């Protein structure tokens, strides 16, 4: 079963990457992100398949099953993000192009890859005597989602003209970076089995980090739309005020849409952090 799923993952990510490359997806930041995801997942899955076929799982200084379920969880989340972001951008941009069909098919293969990775996680967890890895738990999945949404935000922020003109917006970028680091630290501590080396229980440590992230993201959610869509502050409150958006001739995401994407993703990630906070608080309450 695992080998069959691995082959399906290889096929679907390869097809998504190939079709995306054939329509020039790499020309934009979102396209680069999607192409990176499909290529990364393909290479990672190929390496895992080679290791399993050669029977080398026991030669690593860490739990192979834990590593496997972590890779599959992250690959599933990554493919899910590509399956959502890629069609939203490129189906619209290429709606009048002969490449539109290939964009749709590429999205379909990306969705298939997500399903294959999710099935792999489910199948791995269903094995007898399987110790569930951190990334397959609710806190782990939430932390993974937080980092991936942050990565998508960073993709849009690769256009520095969105924020360099305003210190408040630079603060928002700092918030995204700080919270990404905090979530990554929590994941790495757990995966590296270093969570028991802290002077406080890891659950409390994670709760504090999540609370801090919620507070920081709240400031970003307030400041970003205020300084991006307030006409009194020199911004463009309407999409029609952006010439690139209203012309319909642009082959990339216009500035206003990028600004809207960032605030939307900020709201989504804040919701994920709040969910994480509630779940962590409940776990601490039940264990006390």
UniProtKB/TrEMBL annotation:
Positions of the MARVEL domain: 1-129, 134-285
Location of the protein in the cell: Membrane
Entry keywords, A to Z: Membrane, Repeat, Transmembrane, Transmembrane helix
GO cellular component, as recorded: cell-cell junction; plasma membrane
Record-annotated membrane-spanning stretches: 35-55, 67-91, 103-119, 131-156, 168-192, 204-227, 260-279
Top-level division of the source organism's lineage: Eukaryota
Membrane topology label: Multi-pass membrane protein
Keyword Membrane recorded: yes
Main location as per UniProt: membrane
PANTHER family per record: MYELOID-ASSOCIATED DIFFERENTIATION MARKER (PTHR17068:SF3), MYELOID-ASSOCIATED DIFFERENTIATION MARKER MYADM FAMILY MEMBER (PTHR17068)
Family, as annotated: Belongs to the MAL family.
Identification of the protein by name: MARVEL domain-containing protein
Species of origin: Muntiacus muntjak (Barking deer)
Lineage: Eukaryota, Metazoa, Chordata, Craniata, Vertebrata
